[in-house]
Design goal:
Blueprint (H helix, E strand, L loop, with lengths): L2 H27 L7 H4 L1 E2 L2 E2 H36 L16 H75 L6 H27 L9 H15 L3 E6 L6 H22 L3 E9 L2 E8 L6 H7 L1 H12 L3 E7 L3 E9 L1 H7 L1
Parallel strand pairs: 3-4
Antiparallel strand pairs: 1-2, 4-5, 5-7, 6-7
Helix pairs in contact: 1-3, 3-4, 4-5, 5-7, 7-9
Length: 347
């Protein structure tokens, strides 16, 4: 049974009881001389008793209908609120119901909606923390595996390449000078092994990058270049200023330098490498310059993960990475990062 039907029945029943009460009271106080007068007397062509009963019934139906309609609207609004609860958009509307009970229900719905919002935020936080923990664990596993692989390559393949290079070098030095085919082939093999050694050192630098570990950027760069200078036949010079930088900026600049040096060892075939870390006009500038074979920047940029990684690291610290390279003339890489904090202090 709908609420409108129930209210109509309630209105008709209430109206009938009132009609019966007032009729009995009136007839008791003013009893008619003849009861037939109630049917003989007419109003608008209808017997008086039937007319009053019909009007009473109509009033009861109308009151019940409008009462049921009002209740139905209010309950429909509550039902719509319940079925359209959105924890991401809590309601800020003040309860608009006319009765205290419905007002309390609307307050309860708002309270449930806020609780759903808090639970959603908590659930998202837990999911994010779980994902971060899993990512950290995965990164730790990857780093450990890369370090293991780097150690094995260094202890086996790298040592074997070094031994082969030394052996071929000794053979070529003891052989008489000649232009025969065998001598040229041995020299070519020696050059290939030396290039493989450079590739291996670049690969080890990728697999097990040296971290700053509390050192300043200047000291970290000096240690890296000093170690490379002892292992490669490459003239390495540097000009490094002692700069006070944030940890995040130091780490990104150091990783960019590692990637750039690795690319030089693998592809440049350079004889000289120059590294600069300076401050000029509120900018931190990192330059890496070699005199190698050079390359087409546009072609390499679209197909090189290493170059893309360097561009992204520079952008993350608010800087710009520029690479100028000419074939057979070398490559110049420059990262320029503004020092925003000092500008704010001066302002």
């Amino acid at each position: 049974m709908s609420i409108i039907t129930r209210q109509i029945i309630w209105g008709v029943g209430t109206s009938f009881l009132f009609f019966l009460f007032f009729s009995i009271s009136y007839l008791t106080i003013f009893p008619p001389t003849e009861w037939s007068e109630l049917w003989e007397q007419e109003l608008m062509g209808i017997p008086f008793a039937l007319f009053v009963s019909s009007v009473n019934l109509g009033i009861g139906i109308m009151v019940g209908f409008f009462s049921g309609y009002v209740w139905k609207r209010q309950l429909s609004a509550l039902d719509e609120r319940i079925h359209s609860l959105d924890p991401l958009e809590p309601s800020t509307n003040y309860p608009s119901s006319s009765t205290e009970e419905l007002v309390q229900l609307e307050y309860a719905i708002n309270h449930i909606q806020r609780q759903l919002l808090e639970q959603t935020k908590l659930s998202q936080k837990l999911v994010n923390e779980k994902a971060e923990d899993q990512e950290k664990q995965l990164q730790n596993v990857i780093i450990a595996e890369r370090n293991r692989l780097a150690r094995e390559l260094h202890d086996s393949v790298s040592q074997q390449l070094f031994a082969a290079s030394m052996l071929l070098s000794a053979i070529n030095e003891t052989r008489p000078l000649s232009d025969d085919r065998e001598t040229k082939q041995l020299q070519l093999v020696e050059e290939t092994i030396q290039q493989s050694q450079l590739e291996m050192r670049a690969l080890l630098l990728h697999l097990r990058p040296v971290a700053l570990k509390g050192k300043s950027l200047k000291i970290g760069i000096m240690d890296l270049l000093t170690e490379l200078k002892q292992k490669v036949t490459l003239e390495i010079v540097w000009k490094l200023e002692d700069l006070q930088l944030d940890k995040g900026m130091e780490d990104h600049l150091f990783r960019i330098l590692q990637e750039s040096v690795s690319n030089t060892l693998r592809h440049a075939k350079a004889e000289q490498l120059e590294v600069q870390l300076i401050e000029r006009e509120a900018f931190i500038i990192l330059r890496v310059i070699d005199n190698g074979v050079g390359f087409n920047v546009d072609v390499r940029k679209t197909g090189s993960y290493g170059l893309q990684n360097m561009y992204e690291r520079a952008a993350e610290i608010g800087g710009q990475l520029k690479i100028v390279s000419l074939e057979k003339q070398g490559t110049r890489l420059e990262v320029k990062v503004p020092i925003l904090e000092r500008e704010e202090e001066q302002a």
